[in-house]
Amino acid sequence: MRFSDILGHKREINLLKKGIENNRCASTYLFSGLEGIGKRLVARAFAAALNCEEYTGDACGRCPSCTLIASGTHPNLLLVEPEGGTLKVDLIRELKRLINYRVDRGRRVVIIEGAHLMVRATSNILLKTLEEPPPDTVMILISSRPDSLLPTILSRCQRINFSPLKEDAIKEILHREGYTEPSTIEIACRLSCGSAKRALMMASEGIIEKRQQYTAVLSMDDVTDTELLDMAERLSKEEHLEELLESFKTLLRDALIYRVAPSEERIINTDMLDAVGRCTYSVEELLSAYSLVEKTRESILPPNTLNKRLAMEALLVSLKERRWQGFVA
Hints:
It is a single chain. This protein is globular. It starts with 9 loop residues before the first helix and ends in an 8-residue tail after the last helix. The protein has helices at residues 10-21, 39-51, 64-71, 89-98, 120-131, 151-154, 167-176, 182-192, 196-204, 207-218, 225-236, 241-260, 273-277, 283-299, 308-321, and strands spanning 28-32, 77-80, 108-112, 137-143, 158-161. The longest helix is centred in the last third of the chain and has 20 residues, at 241-260. α4 packs parallel to α5 and α8 (182-192) packs across α9 (196-204). It is α/β, with parallel strands linked by helices. β3, α5 and β4 (137-143) form a beta-alpha-beta unit. It has a five-stranded parallel beta sheet, with helices on both faces.
């Protein structure tokens, strides 16, 4: 992986290049931004650049070091990933042991994925390492929820905020993955909010259709409490429940935008424009419903352990009480 292989993030990449060229790389970085926008790819390209034997503004992609980085087998590359929705204490303890070994050539690069998934005990162990970073080692914490990190950890990181990907980049990624249907690409791009991962999920997992299905059920004026609870159970079993809740948020956002300043150009769910235009929510109700959906989404994200079925039941009953009836399929 080279910097030149990455779509977007030119500003972020240039910051890293300047650090290499001036020999002023930080000991710890925090790559923050939406999930699925390429933070990990940039981290891998940074690791390749730091260890490339023929570096000239980018990793060469040919030397032994670049080949090993690409395969994930370079001894200078350590990847730490969550297990079961959390970064466990044992993972950080093992990392602390490994980074005490001397680096023979280049720079050791430690990439910690999902840094916000550390429990307090894990964070405290990592903090001790950040306070006394080993020589020739660069640590990269990757997080889509950096505000969940301890302030003491944040203060020891050089933070690089990654912007959402532009629509052209999302479309290019979808094309590379074999998606050619214009309507699918258009809706997936709009719903992605700049995340390639989310766009691919929208296109491949049927979330676009499920968004319409669940909204249609939810908007029935005569929906019974039993039907509502049945739908809560089905939702709780969805593999990509977080993305469905995100799609609900975009509908509420569209209805709010349409209510305040009607314009098709600003609408995300263009395939549901008629339903959005007929929403009967007031502005205050839309804001309240949006906040409720977001709080529910956050409550089911790791490392939280709230029962998904209970969360969906509480959400749908609350939305019904708030007079949700405007999105008519």
